[in-house]
């Protein structure tokens, strides 16, 4: 049978665009459908604008610390509207870059909502197209619990487009999005509380990292409320909100921001017209080749719920394109030793196993930790401390995990991730000469393990 396209991609986010571009580069006839914005969550309402807002929030500290270096500054004033307008301009520029990447690769771009008609056919804007392979890369969507008054709350999508900075904000959640936005709102001057229903946020991260960040955020004046959850939200006559907690307390606020999870974006996708199956969490079920139960349909990225990170979606998209159209170059995605960062203030950077996971997997571990006040702060009154930690296999000397809380943690850990991926031992770290004076050199100067 002759198909209109060799590959039809639904979703022009990071993974979908990467798969489409590479497939087209390998000679395939490719189309991409996108109903919202080119670049997906990361470019539009995720990593990129979030980090721009984190940069904005960090200036408050820079101004405060400048006097220690001889700078005399007048009163600093922050304008939310300017930051958002400049952010929007940058995102629009990136949207144009994504459009050019697709078009210049020879990919056909269909702007509208694509729906599966059958295993080889999609419908969009009243037209139908056939494809040998269809790739679902529709990503995820913020999920707000359906409590009474949930319509008064916002998620991360809306936060990037607020007209004004709220004076008081309740951030609900314990994952990296909640922690990052709590830091953003607090740094920009809002009275901010972070509410989490568990004992301590960032479940799954190394215990020392979680505890250290809690201490540093508390030093900065961020209100952390653990074992706390909202039962209902009521809007008041003056436009403010009243949040009633499950323990009976009532908190007044101007904004309730939920970051309590994301769901796969499968709305009106037409999966019922195919044999595609969902797993028990509601994500698209795929095998190791990203193939669904319907042999002609594949899925990658956040919609499959494996590792929901942009670089992982990029790797998955490339793997699909190579396997289908350039099999001699195919290699599977390796999910081990994936580095990641949390752009809290201060930042977290981590790669490999936490101490808890390493012990849980049966390793006998040696732990090396260092906590110190960064050199930049020695001329200021700021008492923030950086944490660096290595988790080492006591039997083989291999470094199993590397963790950091402090300025530029993500930048530093990216380089160390290569070492861990290559199987570096603690001896390799010890024999590496540090760059002085830097914080990063601490990773190669830790000599004494922490007592168990």
From TrEMBL:
Keyword Flavoprotein part of the UniProt annotation: yes
Pfam families, per the entry: Pyr_redox_2, Pyr_redox_dim
EC top class named in words: oxidoreductase
UniProt entry keywords in alphabetical sequence: Disulfide bond, FAD, Flavoprotein, NAD, NADP, Nucleotide-binding, Oxidoreductase, Redox-active center
Residues bound to FAD: 51, 302
Keyword Oxidoreductase in record: yes
InterPro entries: FAD/NAD-bd_sf (IPR036188), FAD/NAD-binding_dom (IPR023753), FAD/NAD-linked_Rdtase_dimer_sf (IPR016156), GSHR (IPR006324), GSHR/TRXR-like (IPR046952), Pyr_nuc-diS_OxRdtase (IPR001100), Pyr_nucl-diS_OxRdtase_dimer (IPR004099), Pyr_OxRdtase_I_AS (IPR012999)
Task of the protein: Catalyzes the reduction of glutathione disulfide (GSSG) to reduced glutathione (GSH).
Protein name, entry field: Glutathione reductase
Gene giving rise to this polypeptide: gorA
